[in-house]
Amino acid sequence: MGSVYVFTISIGASNLLSILPIVTSQRTIMYRERFAGMYPSKAHSLAQVIIEIPYIFLEATLFLIISYPAVNLYESAYKVSWYFYDIFCTLLNYKYMGMAIASLSSTYQMASICGSFCITVVNLFSGFLIPQ
């Protein structure tokens, strides 16, 4: 089970850190279009959130196809679907956490530092490294 933990944390950290430059670079575009009155900022935020769902679905599917047989977990449709749901929600959580951190930070460098701190905190309190 340690390999599933490491896979999930590393893919999640990759998702969190990969979204930071995209959101910070789109911030100036969003400010310009909001100032021009093209559309409200809620529409831009909603579009950013919704557009990630198909990509995360594809990523979770590929992750499931590779990691589930590699770890040799129990093969039933019920367990595979729960594993997929868990991976899908975890990857969405990391991606949305990266979006929130990038939106709340003033620069990309500050967002990267805060993102690394959040990855460390999630890793620490994930429940896998419990002292005996």
TrEMBL record:
<keyword id="KW-1133">Transmembrane helix</keyword>
<protein>
    <recommendedName>
        <fullName>ABC-2 type transporter transmembrane domain-containing protein</fullName>
    </recommendedName>
</protein>
<feature type="domain" description="ABC-2 type transporter transmembrane">
    <location>
        <begin position="2"/>
        <end position="131"/>
    </location>
</feature>
<feature type="transmembrane region" description="Helical">
    <location>
        <begin position="6"/>
        <end position="24"/>
    </location>
</feature>
<keyword id="KW-0813">Transport</keyword>
<dbReference type="GO" id="GO:0005886">
    <property type="term" value="C:plasma membrane"/>
</dbReference>
<dbReference type="Pfam" id="PF01061">
    <property type="entry name" value="ABC2_membrane"/>
</dbReference>
<keyword id="KW-0472">Membrane</keyword>
<feature type="transmembrane region" description="Helical">
    <location>
        <begin position="80"/>
        <end position="96"/>
    </location>
</feature>
<dbReference type="GO" id="GO:0140359">
    <property type="term" value="F:ABC-type transporter activity"/>
</dbReference>
<keyword id="KW-0812">Transmembrane</keyword>
<feature type="transmembrane region" description="Helical">
    <location>
        <begin position="108"/>
        <end position="130"/>
    </location>
</feature>
<feature type="transmembrane region" description="Helical">
    <location>
        <begin position="45"/>
        <end position="68"/>
    </location>
</feature>
<dbReference type="InterPro" id="IPR013525">
    <property type="entry name" value="ABC2_TM"/>
</dbReference>
